[in-house]
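Task 17 of the worksheet. Students: predict the tertiary structure of the chain below and write it out as structure tokens. Keep your answer in the requested format; marks are given for formatting as well as content.
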Amino acid sequence: MDFFEQLGPASLGSRLRRMSEQLTVQSAEVYALYHLPLEPRWFPVFYTVAEQPGQSIGELAQHVGHTHAAVSQVVKELVKQGLVTAERGAADLRRSVIRPTEKGAALWPALQAQAADVRQATDALLAETRHNLWLAIGEAEHALSRRDLPSRVKAVRDRRVGHEIELLAYASEYQADFKRLNLQWIERYFRVEPADLRALDHPEEYILARGGYIALAAYQGTIVGACALLRMDAHTYELAKMAVAPDAQGLGIGLRLGQAVVAKARALGATRLYLESNTRLGPALNLYYKLGFQKTVAGTPSPYERCNIQMELFLT
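Model answer:
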């Protein structure tokens, strides 16, 4: 079975590369028809220089839609072939101005004729197809500019993984997992403090018995996430001990846990949620902002030395 038929649209990038390689080989034959000593990949840059001389490499890159580095490399090759010159601009010595040489300018009439013929031949090629590839590419590029492929793939992956994530209420059999998950991130960035060990070694006594709650996340049979609610008073709970295993991060588990404990806090009658964190924990802070938390300076001093930011979320 053909690889592309087997994978279908999942191999879109590879199939486009194959088609690009095919067109590049055939384009070289077209240049030979017109006796033009050019390589296909030089075409956008050289055509622009011949049509609009005096542009910088940055301007050329913007015009043809290639990277500055790629255009710079093509210019170097064109200079080596004696087709263009790269001279420092009079107004800005840091800015190279690209112009065709006499040899390069002599190619311009034949290049224009070739471009016109190729345009006509390509229009005829596209007319042979049910779907106009040129227009379809424009549509696809527009769609990718609005939402790139990695984010699209991640959304599909997250939906699939979401069905495999199970949220659980804490039970004593999960105490070792609760402790393991939290020690992983604390030891990585900070030091474990006595208050940490009290809550992690005895969560029933220091969290649950005082009116709190602990949510856990299981993925593929393993506990990979945890988050706790600590009761501060009748209407305020602290979101604490949020942790996701390193090899399970990026799967949306933290967001699922956060949403679950916010919903639980509402069910418990809370009107305010509070948390303490550290600005080194960028992804965690982004998650808290996504859940609706905002920075506050109204909290009491934290018992944790690692805390340098306090946040709150009003549930009313």
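Marker's comment: The longest strand covers residues 222-233. The chain has a mean pLDDT of 90.
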